[in-house]
Amino acid sequence: MREGQNLASQGRLAEAETSLVQAERVIPNDIELLTLLAKVKGRLGQPEEAAALFRRIVQLKPKVAENHLNLAIALADAKQLDAALAETSAAISLAPRSGPIHLNRARLLADLHRNEEARSEFALSSKLDPGNPDTFYYWSLLEHEQAHLAKETELLETLVKLQPNSDRDFFFLGRSLSEQSRHAESITALRRAIELNPHAGDALYMLAMEVKRQDPSEARTLMKRFVEVRDDAANLDAIETLGNQAYTASKQQNWEEAIRLLHQALAQCNECSVVAGLHRNLGLALCEHGNLREGKQELQQALELDPNDRDAEAALKMLPK
Fold first, then answer.
1. Do the Cβ atoms of 86 and 62 come closer than 8 Å?
2. What one-character-per-residue DSSP string does 234-274 give?
């Protein structure tokens, strides 16, 4: 269990899961173990399995509000919103002044389009836990959806005070101000977003539109930068398309074609966001084609880039030492 805990703290979730599952076989009712394993499974994108574990925890310790909250979050991730909402009710009955519980209930109500109830829960959460930026972010999304722009701006102004280094939050604030024709304030917020993230395409485009009236030259410069960012994104789309074509070839056991496509994708990728997955898939294809030496190298590189790649880890375990 401690090994799994250490691996999880390092972000090595796939390895952590293996250790924790082994521990569970020996101590199946240990609350600390089950909670850690459930959270690892949730982070690995297994919400149904996480929910099943949290439900076991609730059965073992039904009078702990956090257990009901954890189950609610897992159920929400599994798209079981009504069941998740019921768990927040149980949690609130045990801890009525918990800001995080009211926040998660508010988010569920918003997802269920019960907007007035959601708004009340957001307001209560903001009073109980005024330093939690998530409350103001998710509340602002609700107000934007309802076209309550003044309220949205008020919430976003609080949010950027809590998170002064978030380019996303400054972009949303700039957008809200722009939609109210508060152009000077919008420009200030958008400039801050781009200062924090020079590759923020949405902020670059919106700022170009905002300054176009007063400074056409700057607007052209901003649009040029926006096009460069957009082209980088388009290149990533092309790389992902090659990866999908390689996947199709692999399903047809056309390993030579899959390997060719994956090499092509990696040549275009450099250090793009999908590089780990490309190395993993190339490694698997090479192994299937009989080239175990190069395949093992690719799988090892994939695991170095993404320690949570369960497929790469499993494949490496099957290869000869």
1. no
2. HHHHHHHHHHHHHHHHHHTT-HHHHHHHHHHHHHHHTT-TT
Tokens (6 digits) for 40: 């690892």
Per-residue pLDDT tens for 152-169?
999 999 999 999 999 999
The region that residue 148 occupies, defined by phi over 0 for left and psi between -120 and 50 for alpha, beta otherwise, is beta
Q: How far apart are CA 148 and CA 132, in angstroms?
A: 22
Report the candidate in 319, 321, 299 with the shortest Cα–Cα distance to residue 310: 299
pLDDT digits 0-9 by tens, 9-29: 888 888 899 999 999 999 999
Residue 321 CA to residue 304 CA, distance in Å, equals 18
- The band of 37, judged by pLDDT with boundaries at 50, 70 and 90, is very high
Enter the tokens of residue 301.
């590189």
End-to-end CA distance of the chain: give it in Å, rounded: 27
Distances (CA, A) of 72 to 104, 108, 144, 265, 300: 8, 9, 25, 40, 37
**Neighbour count for residue 310 (Cβ, 10 Å):** 16
Crossing angle of helices 133-145 and 167-179, in 10° steps, is 30
pTM for this one? Answer: 0.76
Q: Are the CB atoms for 289 and 259 separated by under 8 Å?
A: yes
For residues 218 and 131, give the distance between their C-alpha atoms in angstroms, rounded to a whole number. Answer: 37
